């Protein structure tokens, strides 16, 4: 079981041969200029919300791969409008759990906003918890710190993907609190350094997590980690 970081909040899981991509934003990310979008062939694509920096490469990647796209109802409607066939779109909502060949994916709360790249209403943002084999992985999406995260503390999460760039989402200090809320010591940071408002001091961030008994992983764009 592996994960590859493609910059911003775009990650790709390899769940023992099933490839799952989240929030595809690569082409317009200057930090991901060496990533070949046309080489990506996910089986599933999950969207946390519909802002441009999370969906910009969706259509191209889906067309190339034939991936099934999963999202909250209103974002799923936008996906269909982009020409993705209805049978390749899964819409669901908070409290819902998808039972897929690689495992289960539960949709959970996120505190943020959401609109389409055209500026239209796209529902609300979400996070996901993946239950794959004996692993439990939380992808927070774009979110501020919220008490709803405490609902996850009894899951005994193995990994959490948390935004750390501040300005539009949680910053490092709030991400430390979030890690405590969800009772997860292994954190992979996302949504940082892509644009000036979300630039961080990476070494200081790692030190802050370490001083709080937590481990912050900041893989390079294109780097793969074992989970």
UniProtKB/TrEMBL annotation:
<dbReference type="Pfam" id="PF12706">
    <property type="entry name" value="Lactamase_B_2"/>
</dbReference>
<dbReference type="InterPro" id="IPR050114">
    <property type="entry name" value="UPF0173_UPF0282_UlaG_hydrolase"/>
</dbReference>
<keyword id="KW-0378">Hydrolase</keyword>
<dbReference type="InterPro" id="IPR001279">
    <property type="entry name" value="Metallo-B-lactamas"/>
</dbReference>
<dbReference type="GO" id="GO:0016787">
    <property type="term" value="F:hydrolase activity"/>
</dbReference>
<feature type="domain" description="Metallo-beta-lactamase">
    <location>
        <begin position="7"/>
        <end position="191"/>
    </location>
</feature>
<protein>
    <submittedName>
        <fullName>Metal-dependent hydrolase</fullName>
    </submittedName>
</protein>
<dbReference type="InterPro" id="IPR036866">
    <property type="entry name" value="RibonucZ/Hydroxyglut_hydro"/>
</dbReference>
């Amino acid at each position: 079981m592996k994960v590859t970081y493609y910059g911003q909040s775009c990650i790709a899981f390899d769940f023992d041969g099933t490839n799952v991509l989240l929030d595809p934003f690569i082409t317009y990310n200057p930090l991901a200029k060496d990533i070949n979008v046309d080489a990506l062939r996910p089986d599933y694509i999950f969207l946390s919300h519909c802002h441009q920096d999370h969906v910009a490469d969706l259509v191209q990647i889906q067309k190339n791969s034939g991936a099934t796209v999963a999202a909250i109802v209103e974002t799923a409607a936008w996906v269909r409008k982009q020409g993705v066939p209805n049978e390749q779109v899964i819409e669901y909502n908070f409290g819902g759990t998808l039972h897929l060949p690689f495992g289960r994916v539960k949709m959970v709360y996120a505190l943020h906003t959401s609109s389409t790249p055209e500026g239209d209403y796209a529902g609300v943002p979400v996070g996901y918890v993946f239950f794959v084999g004996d692993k439990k992985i939380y992808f927070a999406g774009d979110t501020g710190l919220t008490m709803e995260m405490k609902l996850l503390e009894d899951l005994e999460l193995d990994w959490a993907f948390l935004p750390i760039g501040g300005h539009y989402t949680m910053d490092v200090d709030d991400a430390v609190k979030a890690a405590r809320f969800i009772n997860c010591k292994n954190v992979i940071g996302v949504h940082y350094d892509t644009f000036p408002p979300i630039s961080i001091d990476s070494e200081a961030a790692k030190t802050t997590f370490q001083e709080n008994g937590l481990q912050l992983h900041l893989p390079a764009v294109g780097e793969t980690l074992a989970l």
